[in-house]
Amino acid sequence: xxxxxxxxxxxxxxxxxxxxxxxxxxxxxxxxxxxxxxxxxxxxxxxxxxxxxxxxxxxxxxxxxxxxxxxxxxxxxxxxxxxxxxxxxxxxxxxxxxxxxxxxxxxxxxxxxxxxxxxxxxxxxxxxxxxxxxxxxxxxxxxxxxxxxxxxxxxxxxxxxxxxxxxxxxx
Length: 171
Ligand SMILES: Cc1cc2nc3c(=O)[nH]c(=O)nc-3n(C[C@H](O)[C@H](O)[C@H](O)COP(=O)(O)O)c2cc1C
Description:
The chain is α+β, with helices and mostly antiparallel strands. It has five helices and twelve strands. Strands 3-2-6-9-10-5-4 form a seven-stranded antiparallel β-sheet, with helices on both faces. A three-stranded antiparallel β-sheet has the order 1-11-12, with no helix packed on it. It starts with 8 loop residues before the first helix and ends in a 5-residue tail after the last strand. It binds flavin mononucleotide. Flavin mononucleotide (FMN) binds next to β3 and β5. The site of flavin mononucleotide has 11 residues, from β3 and β5.
């Protein structure tokens, strides 16, 4: 057994935060916004808040360059990537990649707010900022869905233990 509730060594030395979080396979997610040029980041903190009204949240590190853009434009988009989007995912995982590398014009489109969305993503939500909760080191941004699309792609792009894991088509 690798987990323990009775203390001992596990209680004395907690496992590194990111190591534990990496054990959760999660759909690879990009959060984007529009300003003078498009901006975006890998945002695995995206979570649903409620279906009625349709609300989602994303936690942004206070140093995240997208934060100012999201607050200023009052909008952002959430992209759940498919295996077809793997080159885009790799461009976002590359430190310091330019907007041109991450947002090749033919690859992106928009829905309602003008925030960039991937037409062949597994799913996209276009959101207007509903509320921003300041936590000091981070801000929790809650968005109201104003546009959405599910593409029916069979192969989601999954992130597990710090690596991309394209999944085989189902069926
Ligand atoms: C797997 C993964 C998940 C991340 N999730 C978040 C997140 O939810 N919120 C956030 O502000 N930054 C998150 N980040 C960090 C940003 O995606 C980004 O790497 C950071 O803001 C630096 O951006 P830059 O590469 O454009 O300089 C995550 C990074 C990785 C690799």
